[in-house]
Amino acid sequence: MASSTDTRASLAIARIIPALIIGLFVYVCYAVTKQLCINYLIHPSPHYHHSPRLGAGVVIIVIFYILLIAVLTTYIRVLSTIIWNTGFLPRGAACNLQQKQAENTAAGQRDHQKHRSNGQQPNPPPEKVGQAEPDLESGLDYKAAGKAYPFDAYGLESFYTKDVFVCQEDGRPRYCSKCCQFKTDRAHHCREVDRCVRKMDHFCPWVGGVVSETSYKFFIQFVFYTSLFCIFNIIITAVFTAELRQNAGRVNAHWLVVLGVSCFFGLFASGMTLSSLQLAMNNLTTIENIGHKTKVWTLAVHIPRPHDIGIDPETQWAATFPTVTYPAPRSSPLLRGQDSKSEDRRVFAILRTQPGENPWDLGSYMKNLQQVMGYTVADWLLPLKQSPCADHSSLESAFALGPAIQKLKREAGLEPPEQPNGAAVNGRSTPAPERYKNKRADRPSRSVPSEDQSSDGIGPALPPQAYRAHHHSLHGHHGRESQASSSRSQPSEISSPSGSD
C-alpha cells in the first residue's frame, strides 16, 4: 500500500499544476489581446509605423476567445469531475482499519518527537499493540465512497446478477489486496492515489488527478480544443512575428513566449488527442492497451439453461468447462433457516478469450466512440453529459459487450451456432468444441486459497459453502459415474483445470 505521504504529495501536485495552467491562460490572453490585437493591429503604437487594421484585430479577438471559452469550459468540467466524481471503488473494512491504525501510530510518533525537542520527558514511543485480525465479514465501510461488498455470496450480488463479469480462475471477481476489496470490471488500482478506480485510463497531474470513465470524455474534448487553440496561436504569432521582423528588424518578446508555449502544449495536446481517440475507437484504456495483443480475459458467463447442456446444479459435474454457482446452495450453513430456491441460483461458465480478443470491442469504430463520446453531435462537442459507458445499470454486463463474447458463447456451446436460415440446431445448443474438450481429467483440483495467500487479483478465501464450482470429467460414461460416486463422500471444493487454454 502506498504511504499516505506519497499519496498526499501526488494529490498536492495534481492540485497545484492546474492553478499554474490557469495563470498561463491569463498571460496568453494578455499577450494576444493587448500586445498583438490592440497595440499592433487596432491602435498601433507609434514605434510600429503602420496604419490600423481594425478588421484583422477584431477577427483574431473573436476567434481567440471562442476557442478559449471552449478550452476553459472543458478544462473546468474535467477538473470538477476528477475532484468530485473520480470513480473510486469503496475500500474494504480491513483497509480502513489498517489506515486508521497507521495514522494513530504516526500521530503518536509526532508527539514523541515534539516532547523531545521541547526538552520535556517524552512519553514512551507508541508501540504496536497486538490485535486480532479483523473479521472481514463482520464489518463494512459505509463511508468510503459507498457500500463495500461483504465477503459472502450475497455480498457479491453486484457481480453475479450480471450475465457476464470478469473473474479469476475460480469464478470469483478480481480482488485488490491493497484496498481489501473486489474489483469491478475494468477497474485498476492507482498507486498515485492508492485507490481502485473504475475504468481508469491514466493519472494526469495536468488535469488534477485520475482520468477514468467519468472524465475520459471531457479529457478528450479538452485536449482537442486545446490543440485547436494552440494551432491558432501558433499561426497568428508566427505570421505577425515574421512581419514585424521584416518591417522593423525586431520582434515582440510576448509574441515569442506565446509562440513557444503554444508549440509545446500544441504538440502535447495533439498527441494526446490522437492517442485518446485511437484508444476510444478500439474501446481500450491506456492501461488495457499495454500488452492487449497477448491479453487473455477470464470471464464468468451466465448459463441461462444449465440442463440444456448437461449441467445439473445439484451435482459436482458440469459440461466441458469449469463453472461456478451463485448464491450458496440450500444446504450451505449461510442459508440455514432461509428460503433459497434452486431456480434462484445462477450458474456461470468460466471461459477465457483468445489472446488479443477484447470483450468490450463492439466491432465498429463508431460504436466504440459512442460509448465514450455519446450518441449525438452535441454530446461530442459539449461537455455536458457523461459517457454512456459510465452507466452500469444493464443486467447483461457492467459494460457493453462485443462480438467476442458471442463468439465465446458459441464456441462453448452456450448458445446456438449461427445458421444460414438463422435457426438453431434442433432448437438446442450444440456441444462445446474441441477447444474446451481437450482438458485432462487427471489435473489436480484446486481448493480456495487462504487469506494469507491473497494478493492483488487473488483475494481472501470465501467460505467454501458460499459458492460451488464444477468441472467435467472426460473419461467416458463409466469414468464419470465412478468419479461422481467417489466425490459425494468428499467435501465440496473448487475444481478447475490448472493450465490455461
TrEMBL record:
GO terms for cellular component: endoplasmic reticulum; Golgi apparatus; membrane. Residues 434-445 have a biased composition (Basic and acidic residues). It is a multi-pass membrane protein. Residues 172-290 form the Palmitoyltransferase DHHC domain. Belongs to the DHHC palmitoyltransferase family. PFA5 subfamily. Its EC number is 2.3.1.225. The chain crosses the membrane at residues 12-33, 53-76, 222-241, 253-274. Residues 482-501 have a biased composition (Low complexity). PROSITE patterns: DHHC. The lineage of its organism: Eukaryota, Fungi, Dikarya, Ascomycota, Pezizomycotina. Residues 468-478 have a biased composition (Basic residues). GO terms for biological process: protein targeting to membrane. Residues 105-134, 414-501 are annotated as: Disordered. One of its GO terms (molecular function) is protein-cysteine S-palmitoyltransferase activity. Keywords: Acyltransferase, Lipoprotein, Membrane, Palmitate, Transferase, Transmembrane, Transmembrane helix. This is Palmitoyltransferase. It is found in: Membrane. It catalyses: L-cysteinyl-[protein] + hexadecanoyl-CoA = S-hexadecanoyl-L-cysteinyl-[protein] + CoA. Its main location: membrane. It comes from Byssochlamys spectabilis. Residues 447-456 have a biased composition (Polar residues). It holds the Pfam family DHHC. The DHHC domain is required for palmitoyltransferase activity.
